[in-house]
Write a structure and sequence with these properties.
alpha+beta; eight-stranded antiparallel β-sheet; five-stranded antiparallel β-sheet; 13 strands
Length: 240
């Protein structure tokens, strides 16, 4: 009887693990749907996204193998670049997104972006969670510029990035100004926008004289075109 019970437990564990592994990319589990998660990327199209200050997504961003890819060949062929931003704005939420960077590559997940022609780029208003090849990109040698950092504001509590070519999972939790960044299950940064600590971080950064930076509690989420190949998938959000 003991062997039967142990066998049943083992079978259950294997079945459960297989079920988790079997979940398709760019999909929501029944549990996630119940918790209120929404997909921001359907794995097939750029629906729900557009290039910053444009009406639609540039062909430089294509969907390949279930991922949003910044296509360098398309840019060489004349497709305009630019950051990809959500059509909708968000204020309090948990964002989960997988990313993979090219060798020597640089990109970023920028949030609270205020889209307005007076701001020519997403990073003029939105803080950024860095996406980077720490080993080969020059920014990897700069404090607060590594993968998982709150770019140029606060360095990661510990290094959590995976080797180039592997998928990383980033989480950004933003609730009433309180901000927590996670990379591959490791909490990398925690701070609160609008507090004395935040003001000190900004004052000590390249953003200190940027009038619109970090001033908007509600805004778009952006995937940065920094000129290097990068891939994003499993982009999902839960409103808080």
């Amino acid at each position: 009887m003991k062997k039967v019970i142990m066998g049943a437990l083992l079978l259950g564990a294997v079945t459960s693990a297989t079920a988790v592994k079997a979940q398709k990319a760019n999909s929501l589990s029944a549990k996630e749907k119940k918790e209120g998660w929404q997909l921001l990327f359907d794995g097939k199209t750029t629906n729900g996204w557009h290039t910053y200050l444009k009406d639609a997504a540039s062909p430089a961003w294509r969907v390949a193998n279930g991922a949003l890819e910044l296509d360098q060949q398309a840019k060489k062929n004349g497709a305009p670049g630019g950051d990809l931003v959500t059509n909708d704005e968000y204020e309090n939420y948990e964002l989960s997104i997988d990313w993979k960077i090219s060798s020597g590559g640089n990109s970023g997940i920028i949030f609270s972006v205020h889209e307005d022609p007076s701001f020519k780029a997403t990073y003029l208003t939105g803080p950024e969670m860095q996406v980077l090849d720490d080993d080969k990109h020059p920014d990897g040698k700069i404090t607060k510029h590594n993968a998982g950092d709150l770019y140029d504001l606060k360095k990661s509590a510990q290094k959590a990035v995976k080797p180039v070519g592997e998928w990383n999972t980033a989480r950004i939790i933003k609730k009433d100004g309180h901000l927590t960044l996670w990379l591959n299950g490791v909490k990398t940064v925690e701070t609160t926008i609008g507090t004395p600590e935040w003001d000190t971080l900004v004052a000590s950064s390249k953003f200190k004289d940027w009038q619109g930076f970090g001033k908007y509690s509600k805004g778009r989420i952006a995937l940065q075109d920094h000129g290097d190949a990068v891939w994003y998938r499993n982009v999902k959000i839960k409103l808080l």
